[in-house]
Amino acid sequence: MTLNLIHDPWIPVLCADGSRRVIVPWQMAQPDVVQPDWPRPDLNIACLEFLIGLVFLADPPADEEDWGERCKADPQRLREKLVPYAPAFNLLGDGPRFLQELAPLTAEGSPVDMLFIDSAGANTVRNNADVMVHRARYERLDFSMAAMALYTFQADAPSGGAGNRTSLRGGGPMVTLVDPERTLWDLIWANVPYGHPAEMDALPWMRPTRVSDTGQQTFPPEGEVFGVEAFFGMPRRLRLIHDDEAVTGVIQKPWGTNYALWKHPLSPYYRLKPGTEWLPKHPRAGHFGYRNWLGVVAGDNRSELSELALCLREQRMSGGSVIVAGWSMDNMKPRDFIFSRQRLLSVLSSEAEIQLVGLIEAAEAVAVTLRNALVPVLAAGEAREAEREAFFLETEARFLTHVQAIEQGENPANIWLNDLRRQALGQFDAKALPGLNQREVEAIGRITGARRYLQGALAGYGKQGAEIFSALGLSPPKTEKRKTA
What we know:
The protein is an alpha+beta fold.
């Protein structure tokens, strides 16, 4: 038995009535299908990318007008467009295999568990160091699960030792998706880039691997920043081992495709200074909130150093949310998988965009000021950083209210400043005042001085105060120069 990813049902989904079934890819366009239903969040995100990639491969919108005319799902059309690509989507067999080395590999196989980023590597197991990762969870994978795990691994491929290449977005990339929050097809269609159907040989497993043992690089198609290979990149040279019922192992060889200068349409990018190479953004561990919006959910036209994902820059939908997801990595080690829903912003005027960016920058400046003020109260490191995180969590609801005000043409700068002032002083007092009268006189002096510093900055005084007021477009208070004797 084998599996063809175009002809066979293999993708588990949830339906509008709460039932679960397994579909063929073209059935993503059926109106009752709501979302993928794999047992892991990283597989669900990768499945969305895979389905977007399939539509981009076989039947993308040519332009904005074509996209608008074809918003209504057409399962039969999608089926007809996908069928010619079926020979490229066999998971197993003697011919080309989906996302695997074209020629058979001969080497000792690794456990199939290696297809999951949070699985323990060989060295980790030998050293008994698998604390945040896990060993021996998946001894066998049914063909459907193996196909999705293989796609996820190639799309997110982390650093993996000498010669084992990362994905074209680096290890554990950040993914942003527009979600109209209706059907699965609405989500897929909202994120498909404009283009034209690709040839079958544009898929990297349909040709000999572009090995990179002497540093060879693979660039996007001429004149473009990405092609269909962005959705079907193959940085790792892999070959699945299987029996009649399941995949039981993986053979891996080093020096797979080394991608350079690609920009994936579903990921945000940044650069260190204008004119330098664009680099993919990666999630940080922990809560993703408004402090992380800039360059991911919200753009800043004044900056040449960050760029939203193409699916957000084109923004063809009104209403819904933005899914932000991806592995937070520490080099080869996974720290956390981020999955968050954020507001899909209305198209803002330049002035409104500046106001929104200012709210975030002002909050960041206040958070830094609060952390500095807590120096005589809390020990260095994690304790003060935890207060900074708490500050953003406690102000998030108010921030979202002010975003609505900006979208309606209002300027909430003064109200937001009061919100920030109230939260920062309240947090400081909650940590500093209990037991204050039992401290030594010198310590009390440092704490009261720190509070004056915080109050002054929140009133617009000093370097930090000027930064806060400038971000909000407010004029700082005038200070009279002292007369010299």
